[in-house]
């Protein structure tokens, strides 16, 4: 059954994209909450962020 391999790869790829998108939304939401608490600008937060 080799015709099912592309579908499996598409499902895996879409799931990875979904998880990355959810992580990005959570990170953005947490940064917005921190910015609202500290009342600082987005540029200062990104500058102080340890990558």
Automatic annotation (TrEMBL):
GO molecular function: proton transmembrane transporter activity
One Pfam family, short name: ATP-synt_8
Keywords from the UniProt entry: CF(0), Hydrogen ion transport, Ion transport, Membrane, Mitochondrion, Transmembrane, Transmembrane helix, Transport
Residues passing through the membrane, by range: 6-30
Subcellular location field: Mitochondrion membrane
Top-rank taxon: Eukaryota
Main location: mitochondrion
Membrane topology listed for this record: Single-pass membrane protein
Single Gene Ontology BP annotation: proton motive force-driven ATP synthesis
Cellular component GO terms, alphabetical: mitochondrial membrane; proton-transporting ATP synthase complex
Quaternary structure annotation from Swiss-Prot or TrEMBL: F-type ATPases have 2 components, CF(1) - the catalytic core - and CF(0) - the membrane proton channel.
Record-stated family: Belongs to the ATPase protein 8 family.
Protein name per UniProt: ATP synthase complex subunit 8
Annotated organism of origin: Chiropterargas boueti
Recorded name of the encoding gene: ATP8
């Amino acid at each position: 059954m080799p015709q099912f391999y592309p579908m499996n790869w598409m499902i895996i790829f879409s799931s990875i994209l979904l998880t990355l998108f959810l992580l990005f939304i959570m990170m953005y939401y947490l940064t917005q909450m921190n910015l609202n608490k500290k009342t600082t600008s987005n540029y200062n937060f990104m500058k102080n962020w340890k990558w």
